[in-house]
Design a protein that fits this description.
The protein has 233 residues and is of the alpha/beta class. The protein has helices spanning 7-15, 28-44, 61-68, 80-93, 105-111, 131-141, 157-170, 187-196, and strands at 51-55, 72-77, 98-102, 116-122, 142-153, 200-210, 215-219, 225-231. Strands 3-2-1-4-5-8-6-7 form an eight-stranded mixed β-sheet.
Length: 233
């Protein structure tokens, strides 16, 4: 069975795993945007008491934050080293109601369909060969009435300028080669994949960044980074 993952992408993030929780390191942007995306998720689908799945959890920045909000969280990823870092950090900080599994969304969907109240998949779809497959798996994993949250980068000239040239080469916010332009996904394409998976799109927000102030905020401009929320009827 073919796994919906790129070995080069897994290796890339594994090599940086030990830096995952350094707020001034290569994952500084994730630390910076985490409060923003956490509040957006919690406002649309309050986390306390919910069974939450974080797909492509990496080192656990969002998963741990959601567990701190009172959710019972399962984080999954196919990169072993970031998962080890996530487990160790959770132990070190004493966060409970949090488990990590090395498994794909597709395989977990076969094992635990309809098991989760909330499913998140953030900054992950642009790193896999078949993003539509992940969206379908997320839909299967969600129970009826559940909320699903995705974030990725639009395929646009502005995104190339900001997310690759600006973030990776000029401002050096991210390591060079973090993103591949051809894998960026337009909001219309992600919305279409969600609808095809039986989901209803309920919110779409752009995420913007000011390099002078270091501030991130949500807006109506979805031409670079954006977040999309769905519900499962």
């Amino acid at each position: 069975m073919n796994v919906n993952a790129d070995p080069q992408e897994l290796s890339k993030f594994s090599e940086l795993a030990h830096r995952w929780w350094d707020p001034g390191g290569e994952f500084k942007p994730l630390h910076a945007i985490n409060p923003l995306r956490l509040e957006w998720i919690d406002a649309l689908a309050p986390l306390r008491g919910r069974r939450v799945l974080d797909v492509g959890c990496g080192g656990g920045i969002l998963a741990e934050a959601m567990a701190r909000r009172g959710a019972t969280v399962t984080g999954i990823d196919l990169a072993a080293k970031p998962l080890k870092v996530a487990r160790l950090h959770a132990l070190d900080t004493g966060v409970s109601e949090l488990e990590y599994m090395e498994i794909s969304a597709e395989d977990l969907a076969r094992q635990r369909p309809g098991a989760f109240d909330t499913v998140t998949c953030m900054e992950m779809l642009e790193h896999v060969p078949q993003p539509d497959s992940v969206v379908r798996a997320c839909a299967t994993l969600a129970r009826p009435g559940a909320h699903l949250f995705f974030s990725t980068i639009s395929r646009s000239a502005k995104a190339f300028a900001f997310a690759i040239v600006g973030a990776e080469h000029v401002l050096k916010l991210l390591p060079k080669g973090t993103h591949e332009y051809a894998r960026f996904i337009r909001p219309s394409e992600l919305a279409r994949a969600c609808r095809a998976a039986g989901l209803e799109v309920i919110d779409l927000k752009g995420m913007q960044y000011n390099p002078l102030t270091g501030r991130y905020w949500l807006s109506g401009d979805t031409s670079v980074n954006y977040l999309l929320a769905c519900s499962k009827p």
